[in-house]
Amino acid sequence: MIDPEVAAAIAALPKNSKGTLLDYSDIPALREQLRAAAAAAETPPQDPRVAVETLLLDRVDGSQLAVVLYRPVDGPETQPAILWFHGGGQVLGGEPHHDAEYLTSLALACECVVAAVDYRVAPETPAPGGAEDGYLAYTHLCKHAADHDLDPTRIGLAGASGGGAPATVTALMVRDREAPVPRVLSLLYPMLDDRNETPSSHEVTDIGVFDRQENLYAWAAVLGDRAGAPDLHPYCAPGRATDLSGFPRTFLAVGQYDVFRDENIDFARRLIAAGVSVDLHVYGGAVHAWDRFAPETALARTFAQTWHNSVRHSLHA
Fold this sequence. Notes:
By secondary structure, the chain is an alpha/beta fold.
């Protein structure tokens, strides 16, 4: 049974004609809906406890990648950092998902710089374009840590939902290209496997948050006709990776009623088999992204405390 508090919070949110929170069948329309909602919402003032700075990094094609740093002003002169990959099924961009209020709170709670990477999304940029952006951002922060008052030995990766894919692929690229190992890989209900063959991918069909059909729409946008192909490269869907050795310590949390539940549990199991230190948390009664859709519930607060403690420990220990 879905947690009653979470169920009530989800039920109170406005749904579309299909009974879902977000309709991924028409990505341009969904983006416009979210832009309009963001424009209509009141923007709170930036918390003075956190300074915000935008870095613009040059890609090889000459375009620029934005990385927004949220830095606690009362922190030490040199701080650890977490590179953050926002959710959105790998098809929704940074607005409103690069929300300043959430990232400011995250920086304060985790006592670190949060570097939000505005990675490219599909279908305009199919996988692994978003992960290449993540790799560019991560290696820049490591190489130029002193320029940004960061500790190069204490930089981690974190991603939620769709952002879990490029975050995980960035960890793969870092390992394969022999870049400095991230301090931690922190994944919240990550989107990892395009095949959608697990029991939970068939069970979660009518909750209305991010169910099987939404996942199919998103992966089709990310991969096109490559979705489900037997020879798909893990850089395009990290759940396909067969060698997970050399990964950083990994934190992974997922809800019981999440379409990603079983692929997440399987990924954690395979990391453990590869000798990686893994903290796996399965939250009974939770749906996909319950901490964002039902943030005031006890289940969301419990999760937030556990996750923030994990990030702090990984970056500061």
